[in-house]
Structures are given as structure tokens and as C-alpha cells.
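R.M. (postdoc): so does anyone remember the format we settled on? I'll just put the C-alpha cells first.
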């Protein structure tokens, strides 16, 4: 039996893009709502990151994990994929390529 004091955690791998859907960023977090807000704030504050440089703040894909090591492995796997393979993954889950940020507000 699991120790109830340990609780469960959620980890997410996610893909964000810009309003033109032209560039992708793949990341991992244990709080997707907070992380999406950080990306948006970094753009507003002109913080020098890859995501802010390309104004990447719109969620188009995510996967949820209980075990952090599985999430890390999946993030590494996706980062190795070419653009076409990433596009197929996104469109299989999100056919209209809509921005999913509202799911985490």
C-alpha cells in the first residue's frame, strides 16, 4: 500500500508556440498553469530566453505523468524529433491546432 503522506505529483511535458505557430518549445514542469504564466511574463518583461525571444506562450500539446523520470525521458525523446514528427503528434491530439492555455487558467 502507498504511504498516503507521500501523495501524488503530476508532471507535464508541454509544447508551446507563438501566435503564428511557427516555432516550438518543449518543456517539463510540475505546475503547468504557473509555467505558462512564467512564459507570458518573460515576454512582457523582455527576459532573454529562447521562448521569450520567439514569443512562445501558447500551449498546443501536453502529456501528464505521475513519475518525473518518465516525463524527463519523454521530453528528451520529443526534443530529438524533427518538426514534421512534432506537427503530427500535435495534430493527432489537437487537430485544429487550438491554443489550450484556457485549460489551465
Amino acid at each position: 500500500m502507498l504511504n498516503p503522506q507521500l501523495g501524488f505529483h503530476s508532471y507535464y511535458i508541454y509544447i508551446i508556440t507563438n501566435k503564428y505557430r511557427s516555432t516550438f518549445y518543449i518543456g517539463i514542469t510540475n505546475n503547468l498553469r504557473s509555467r505558462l504564466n512564467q512564459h507570458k511574463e518573460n515576454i512582457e518583461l523582455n527576459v532573454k530566453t529562447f521562448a521569450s525571444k520567439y514569443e512562445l506562450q501558447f500551449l498546443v500539446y501536453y502529456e501528464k505523468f505521475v513519475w518525473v523520470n518518465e516525463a524527463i525521458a519523454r521530453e528528451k525523446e520529443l526534443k530529438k524529433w524533427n518538426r514534421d514528427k512534432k506537427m503530427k503528434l500535435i495534430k493527432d491530439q489537437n487537430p485544429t491546432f487550438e491554443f489550450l492555455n484556457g485549460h489551465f487558467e
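R.M.: ...and that's the designed sequence above, right after the C-alpha cells. Also worth knowing: The longest strand covers residues 58-65. The chain has a mean pLDDT of 93.
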